[in-house]
Amino acid sequence: MKMARVPYLDRENLAPENQDLLKRNINLYRTLAHSPNALRRFSGLGQFIRFDSKLDPRLRELAILQVGWLTRSKYEYSHHIKISRDFGVSDDDIRGMIAESEGRPSDLEPVIKAALRAAREMTTDLAASDATFAELAAALSTEHLTDLVITIGFYNAVVRILETMQIGVEDDYQKYLEEFPLPSD
């Protein structure tokens, strides 16, 4: 495993007014804490996506897992396997996401399949196709559709930060990679 490109910070490394940034003591935040104001804004959008967006949490988490799976981001993928379970994603849902990614059929609902396709297209082709966007627009409100696009775009940024900074997966999350391995390149 590669070492992170900058040292992980702990609460005591931060000024008192920034120590709250590490209330979630995860390597991503411990790295981004080198820029406290950026972490505060970054974490604000992440908190909106997770707790304030009206987008169906199961759909959201499967789209995030799709980004992590497709980019082979061990950190994002392992963290969101854990997080997704807290929001109602089942192991069968995760297996369905993998099947869809590999071009195999799944029992996932059409709107979930379209969201996964949008995540794949936005990750590999920069944007969702007209057909995928139209399918989602027919199934979701404009607010939900906008939140989905923001979510996919945000997590495409997150995986690029994780990989560029070479942020390592914490030991507690390794088991998720063993349970649902990423494909090898």
UniProtKB/TrEMBL annotation:
SUPFAM superfamilies from the UniProt entry: AhpD-like
Read off the InterPro entries from this record: AhpD-like, CMD-like
Gene Ontology terms for molecular function = peroxiredoxin activity
KW DNA-binding (keyword) present: no
Q: Where is the Carboxymuconolactone decarboxylase-like domain?
A: 36-120
Domain of life per record: Bacteria
Q: Which UniProt keywords apply?
A: Oxidoreductase, Peroxidase
- Which Pfam families did the record assign? CMD
What is the protein name stated in its UniProt record? Answer: Alkylhydroperoxidase family enzyme
Q: Which source organism?
A: Stella humosa
| UniProt lineage | Bacteria, Pseudomonadati, Pseudomonadota, Alphaproteobacteria, Rhodospirillales
